[in-house]
Design brief:
heterodimer, A: about 475 residues, alpha+beta, Arc Repressor Mutant, subunit A, 3 domains, 3-stranded antiparallel sheet, about 20% strand, B: alpha/beta, Amidase signature (AS) enzymes, 11-stranded mixed sheet, 11 strands
C-alpha cells in the first residue's frame, strides 16, 4: 500500500501599515517593550476598535491578486480564548464572511508550475508577545513577560485547500506567497522578523483514496527550513504509524526546532471552542464596487506575469522564478542588461552569479552610485568578442564595485585585454614548443590532455593576455602538422 | 425656592443675569449630597475640591459674560461605568476597585468642553447587570422616596443622586432599561437615545449592541440639553452614527399606539392606570390613540437574556488580572486568571458570563444565540410595522412600582421581569423615554414609557414635553434638601 500525503497551509502575513488594525498606534519594529500602546490595543475597559482602512485595502489587494471572490458584505467576529498576551481575551477575526474566498496561486518548482487552491483570505489582529521564563511554555513558566507592541497589528490569514502533496510544494508556495506580498507592497515579507508565520495540516491516506486521513496540525515553524523538515518528519511519522497499524490521533503538534521532531501540544478533545460570534463593536463591512475597482487599479505586476515576461526574454522558467523572487533592483538590472546585450543567459548568470556573489562576499548591500548597468553589458560584450577572459572579467567587476572607473579603464590599467593576433601568438607558441619538446612528444602519442599544460605556459608567458581558446587551437594545429 | 430643584435652562438664566453663581449652586448641591449620602449611598466617589475650583472658574465666565454653554457650571453625576481620566472607574466591582482610568470617555470629553462639573461617580449594579443597584460590591443604594425601597438599576446611583438633588442631572447607561427603570422608580425623566447617537467610547461595555449612554433628569428639557451635548458621530466608536434626526409631528396630528402586550398579565394595575391616565389626557387634547399589537414583545426577555449575556461573556473576558485591576496570585498564569475572576466578579456577573458562554458554545449556538439573533430581527421588523401605523408607542416603564430592598435578590428571574417593558427598545435600537406621571398608594413614583422610530429622538423629546406639561407631575422626595 502506497500512502499519499495531503497538506493544507495556514499563513499569517503581518501587514506593513503605519498604524495598527483597530487603533491609531504606530506599528513599531523595536526591542523596547510596550512603547506603542493605547486603551484599545491594551484592552482597557471601555475602549473600542475602529478598522484601519489601509489594511482593508491591503487584504482586498491580496484577495484580488489570488483570484478570490470578494465578500461584498463582510463581518468581523470575536474568537474567544484566554491567553495573557491577548488583551481582550478574544481576537477580532473573521469567520464565515472572510474578505476573499476560493482563489489560487501559481507556484514554480524547477521547470514546472502548479496551482495551489486557496480556500479563504481573512483579516485579523495580532496578539502581544509572551516570554515565558523557565521552560518556555506557559504551563510551567516561573514568570511571563508581556510586550503589547505587536498587539493589534493587522494580520492577513490565507488558508489553502488540502491540495499540497510535498514539503517541496509547501516551500514553493510560501516563497511565492512571500514574493506576492512584497510585490503588492502589503508586507515587508521578512521571515526572520515573523512577518510570515505558518501552520500546516498534514494527513496521509492510501494513494487514490477519495477520503483524507486523520489530520494533524503542526505549529511553531518559523523558517522555510523548519517548514520543510517538519512536514517531512510528520509524513514519515504518520506513514510509519499507518504501516504499523497505529491509529493517528487528530491533534495539534509542536515542531521542536532543536530536536527536529514534532510532539503533542493538545489533542482534539482538549481543543478550544472559540465561540465565534459577530463583533457587536464593528458594523458589517461593505466593500463597494468603487472601492474594489479602486484597489484593482492600484494592482502592480504580479510575480506570475513577471515570470512570463522573463521567460519571453529567453530564460528558463527556473531562472525566471529565481529572478522574480529577487530584489527589485536585480530584476530591473536584468531587464536593462538584457535589453542591451540580448543575451539572457549571460545577463542572468552575471547578475545572479558573479555580481551578487561578489557583493555578498564583500558585504556590499547595494550597488555603488557610479556603477552603471552598462558596465555589465560592456563586460558581457568584451567576453563575447574575446577581448577579455572570463577570469579577467571577474577582476574587472570586482574593481568596478570598489572604484569609480569603467571596464575599459580597468582592462587597460591592469593589462587585461587579450592578444587575439594570430601571428603574435604563433611566435610565442614556437618558443614554448621548443622548450617543452617532451610534452609535445607525449601529445603526439595521444596524450591530448597535456595540451592544457602548454596553454598554461602560454598564458604565463603572456601574463594572461592571450585568448586561451585561440592558444589551444594554434598549439594543437602546430603539434599535429 | 430651592435652587437645586430648578431645571438647567432656568439655572443658566440665573447665572447669566448674575442672580446666582455656579459656586453657590454647587455648594447647595454638595450639601444635599453630604446630607443624603449616609442614607442613600448614591455615590461611590464625590469630587469636592476640584469642583470648588471649577465652579469658581464658571463664576468668572458668567461675571465677564464669556460663558457660551448651557451646561457651564451645571453639576452632573456620572455613573461609575463611564471613564473619567485620573479617577477611579470601578463598575461597582471588586475587580476594578483599584482601577484608575487613564482616559476620558467621549461623553466626558464633550461635557468637559461645555464646562460641566462632575459631582462624582454613582453606584450601579456590578458592570450594569441588575435592576436594583443591590448587585454592587460596595453596598446597595436606596430610593430617595423611601429608603426601604430600591432605586431601580442598574443606574440606581445616578437616579438616587438626582432624586435627592445631589446633582442637577446624571448620566446613566441603558442596556435593557437601566436608565428608564430607575428614573421611573425615582420620579425622574430617563432617556435612552437611539443606538449609535451617543458614542460608547469609554463606557465599560456590558452588551455592546444594546448599551447606550443617556441622561437621568428632572425634566424633559434637561434631557434634551444633555442629549444635544453628548450626541454625535465619534471616530472612536465604529457603531456611532451621524445624528441626522427624522422630523416626526408631536402635535395633534401625531398618532399614538398603546402596546397591547405590555398592558396585560404581569403589569400591575397601578402601572396600567398611569398609561390610561396619559392616553385619556392625550385623547382629550385631540390625539388619535389606538391599541397596537407587537406579539414578539412577549419574547423580549428570552431574547435579551441570550444576547446580552453572550456579548458580556466576551466583553468581560478582559478582566483577568494580567494588565490592571484585581490580581489574585496563582501558581501559573492561568491559575492566576482563574483565581482573579473567581474572586473579582460577583454572583450575578458570573451567572451571566456562564449563561452567555453556554449560549455561544459549539452545538448550542444555533439553538440559543442564533435563534435569539433571528428573533431580534423579527422584533425590529415588528416595530417597523407598528410605526407604519402610529408615531409614538406608549407603555408602562416598569410593571410595578419600586420593590423593597432584598425582596427579589434571591429570585433572579423575577428580577429580570422588571425589565419587561424597557428591553424591546434596546433590542430594536429605538429611542425611549420614561416620564414621571404619578405616585402610587405607597407614595412611590411611577412613569410611563414612550418610544418612537430610530433617529426621531428630538421629536420624541418634543412629544414627551407635551405629556410632561399636561400631566403636571410636580412631586418630589422629601427630606434631602
Amino acid at each position: 500500500m502506497s500512502l499519499q500525503p495531503t497538506i493544507g497551509i495556514e499563513t499569517h502575513i503581518e501587514l506593513n501599515t503605519n498604524t495598527k488594525m483597530f487603533c491609531r498606534c504606530g506599528v513599531v519594529d523595536t526591542e523596547d517593550p510596550n512603547i506603542s500602546l493605547c486603551p484599545t490595543c491594551l484592552g482597557l475597559p471601555g475602549a473600542l476598535p475602529v478598522p484601519n482602512k489601509k489594511a482593508i485595502e491591503s487584504i482586498t489587494l491580496l484577495a484580488l491578486s489570488t483570484g478570490c471572490e470578494i465578500t461584498r458584505k463582510g463581518m468581523f467576529h470575536r474568537k474567544n480564548y484566554f491567553y495573557p498576551d491577548l488583551p481582550k481575551n478574544y481576537q477580532i477575526s473573521q469567520f464565515d464572511l472572510p474578505v476573499g474566498l476560493n482563489g489560487e496561486l501559481e507556484i514554480v518548482i524547477e521547470e514546472t508550475t502548479d496551482n495551489i487552491q486557496i480556500e479563504r483570505v481573512h483579516m485579523e489582529e495580532d496578539t502581544g508577545k509572551s516570554t515565558h521564563s523557565g521552560s518556555g511554555r506557559i504551563e510551567s513558566a516561573t514568570s511571563t513577560a508581556l510586550d503589547f507592541n505587536r498587539s493589534g497589528v493587522p494580520l492577513v490569514e490565507i488558508v489553502t485547500k488540502p491540495v499540497i502533496t510535498s514539503s517541496k510544494q509547501a516551500v514553493a508556495y510560501i516563497e511565492e506567497l512571500r514574493q506576492l506580498a512584497i510585490d503588492l507592497n502589503i508586507s515587508e515579507g521578512r521571515l526572520e522578523k515573523g512577518n510570515l508565520r505558518f501552520d500546516a495540516n498534514i494527513s496521509v491516506a492510501p494513494e487514490g483514496s477519495s477520503e483524507l486521513g486523520t489530520k494533524v496540525e503542526i505549529k511553531n515553524m518559523n523558517s522555510l527550513r523548519s517548514l520543510e523538515r517538519a512536514i517531512d518528519y510528520e509524513i514519515e511519522r504518520q506513514t510509519k504509524a499507518v504501516e504499523d497499524g497505529v491509529e493517528i490521533i487528530q491533534e495539534t503538534r509542536h515542531w521542536d526546532e532543536n530536536k527536529e521532531l514534532t510532539s503533542t501540544m493538545r489533542s482534539k478533545e482538549g481543543s478550544a471552542d472559540y465561540r465565534y460570534f459577530s463583533d457587536p463593536d464593528l458594523p458589517n463591512m461593505y466593500l463597494s464596487e468603487d472601492f474594489i475597482n479602486q484597489v484593482k487599479s492600484s494592482m502592480p505586476q504580479l510575480p506570475k506575469k513577471q515570470r512570463e515576461e522573463l521567460v519571453d526574454t529567453g530564460l528558463t522558467l527556473k531562472q525566471a522564478n529565481i529572478l522574480s523572487k529577487s530584489d527589485v533592483w536585480i530584476k530591473s538590472l536584468y531587464f536593462k542588461v538584457h535589453k542591451q546585450t540580448k543575451d539572457s543567459e549571460a545577463s542572468f548568470n552575471w547578475i545572479t552569479g558573479e555580481l551578487q556573489g561578489q557583493m555578498r562576499k564583500s558585504s556590499i548591500e547595494k550597488l555603488p552610485e557610479w556603477f552603471s548597468y552598462e558596465y555589465l553589458s560592456e563586460i558581457i560584450e568584451l567576453i563575447k568578442n574575446s577581448k577579455i577572459s572570463f577570469t579577467s572579467a571577474k577582476v574587472i567587476l570586482s574593481e568596478l564595485l570598489n572604484t569609480d572607473t569603467t571596464p575599459n579603464e580597468v582592462a587597460e590599467q591592469k593589462n587585461l585585454f587579450q592578444e587575439n593576433d594570430t601571428d603574435k601568438i604563433s611566435e610565442m607558441i614556437v618558443q614554448i614548443l621548443e622548450e617543452n619538446q617532451d610534452v609535445v612528444d607525449r601529445i603526439k602519442t595521444g596524450e591530448d590532455k597535456l595540451v592544457g599544460f602548454l596553454v598554461g605556459q602560454v598564458m604565463k608567458q603572456s601574463n594572461g593576455s592571450v585568448n586561451p581558446g585561440m592558444a589551444k587551437e594554434l598549439l594543437l594545429k602546430k603539434i599535429k602538422d | 425656592m430651592d435652587i437645586t430643584n430648578l431645571p438647567i435652562r432656568k439655572l443658566n438664566t440665573l447665572f447669566s443675569k448674575k442672580e446666582l453663581k455656579p459656586s453657590e449652586l454647587y455648594s447647595q448641591i454638595f450639601d444635599n449630597a453630604a446630607n443624603s449620602e449616609a442614607s442613600l449611598h448614591a455615590h461611590l466617589t464625590l469630587f469636592e475640591d476640584e469642583n470648588i475650583k471649577k465652579a469658581k472658574e464658571s463664576d468668572l465666565r458668567f461675571d465677564s459674560g464669556t460663558s457660551e454653554s448651557l451646561l457651564d457650571g451645571i453639576p452632573i453625576a456620572i455613573k461609575d461605568n463611564i471613564n473619567i481620566k485620573g479617577y477611579k472607574t470601578t463598575c461597582s466591582s471588586k475587580m476594578l476597585s483599584n482601577y484608575t482610568s487613564p482616559y476620558d470617555a467621549t461623553v466626558i470629553k464633550k461635557l468637559n468642553e461645555r464646562q460641566t462639573l462632575f459631582t462624582g461617580k454613582t453606584n450601579l449594579d456590578e458592570f450594569a447587570m441588575g435592576s436594583s443597584t443591590e448587585n454592587s460590591a460596595f453596598g446597595l443604594t436606596r430610593n430617595p422616596w423611601d429608603t426601604d425601597f430600591v432605586p431601580g438599576g442598574s443606574s440606581g446611583g445616578s437616579a438616587a443622586s438626582v432624586g435627592a438633588r445631589s446633582s442637577v442631572a446624571a448620566l446613566g447607561s441603558d442596556t435593557g432599561g437601566s436608565i428608564r427603570q430607575p428614573a421611573s422608580f425615582c420620579g425622574l425623566v430617563g432617556f435612552k437615545p437611539t443606538y449609535g447617537t451617543v458614542s460608547r467610547y469609554g463606557l465599560i461595555a456590558f452588551a455592546s449592541s444594546l448599551d447606550q449612554i443617556g441622561p437621568i433628569t428632572k425634566t424633559v428639557d434637561d434631557s434634551r440639553i444633555i442629549f444635544s451635548a453628548i450626541s454625535g458621530d465619534d471616530p472612536r466608536d465604529a457603531t456611532s452614527i451621524v445624528n441626522n434626526q427624522l422630523d416626526i409631528p408631536s402635535d395633534k396630528t401625531a398618532k399614538i399606539g398603546v402596546i397591547k402586550e405590555l398592558m396585560g398579565d404581569g403589569i400591575s394595575d397601578e402601572a396600567r392606570n398611569e398609561v390610561n391616565k396619559v392616553t385619556e389626557i392625550l385623547k382629550s387634547s385631540g390625539y388619535e390613540v389606538k391599541e397596537i399589537s407587537i406579539p414578539i414583545i412577549e419574547l423580549a426577555i428570552s431574547i435579551y437574556y441570550l444576547i446580552a449575556p453572550a456579548e458580556c461573556s466576551a466583553n468581560l473576558a478582559r478582566f483577568d488580572g494580567v494588565r490592571y485591576g484585581l490580581r489574585v496570585d496563582g501558581k501559573t498564569s492561568y491559575e492566576m486568571m482563574e483565581n482573579t475572576r473567581a474572586e473579582g466578579f460577583g454572583k450575578e456577573v458570573k451567572r451571566r458570563i456562564l449563561l452567555g458562554t453556554y449560549a455561544l458554545s459549539a452545538g448550542y449556538y444555533d439553538e440559543y444565540y442564533g435563534k435569539a439573533l433571528q428573533a431580534r430581527k423579527e422584533m425590529i421588523e415588528g416595530f417597523i410595522k407598528a410605526f407604519n401605523e402610529v408615531d409614538y408607542l406608549i407603555s408602562p416603564t416598569t410593571p410595578t412600582q419600586a420593590f423593597k430592598a432584598g425582596e427579589k435578590t434571591s429570585n433572579p428571574l423575577e428580577m429580570y421581569m422588571s425589565d419587561l417593558c424597557t428591553i424591546p427598545a434596546n433590542l430594536a435600537g429605538l429611542p425611549a423615554i420614561s416620564i414621571p406621571t404619578g405616585v402610587t398608594s405607597d407614595n412611590l413614583p411611577l412613569g410611563v414609557q414612550v418610544m418612537s422610530r430610530a433617529l426621531s429622538d428630538d421629536s420624541l423629546l418634543n412629544f414627551s414635553e407635551i405629556i410632561e406639561k399636561e400631566v403636571q407631575f410636580n412631586q418630589q422626595p422629601k427630606g434631602w434638601m
